[in-house]
Design goal:
Order of helices and strands: HEEEEEEHHEE
Strand order of the largest sheet: 1-2-3-6-5
Helix content: 10-25%
Shape: globular
Number of helices: 3
Length: 119
Amino acid sequence: GLLALTLLSTAQAQVPRLFPAHALRGEITGTAPPDVLLNGRPARLAPGARIRNQENRFDLISQIAGQKLVVNYTLEAGGMLLEIWILTPSEQANRPWPATREQAQTWTFDPIAQAWTRP
């Protein structure tokens, strides 16, 4: 049982996460839930927002309070943060990654390689 659990968690850690094409890159600082700073500006988590840590497990907003983290994120229609992935060092090294909707609309995304190409 324990060996299987260890192998499972090791295997999960090695699987690259697939981010959606509309995920943007930014820096989040946890402040007073549901408020955060996104790239230094006030932002708010949407109701039902999901935060995934570097192990791809769900975190509570209170767990990131006071931390400054490099993330990929998606926004809901009203502009609130919907999904947040706290990036691993290797994910952070995957560049370029769009930081604005305008960049995401003009760059080309390869969902298999998880790579962006600037025009």
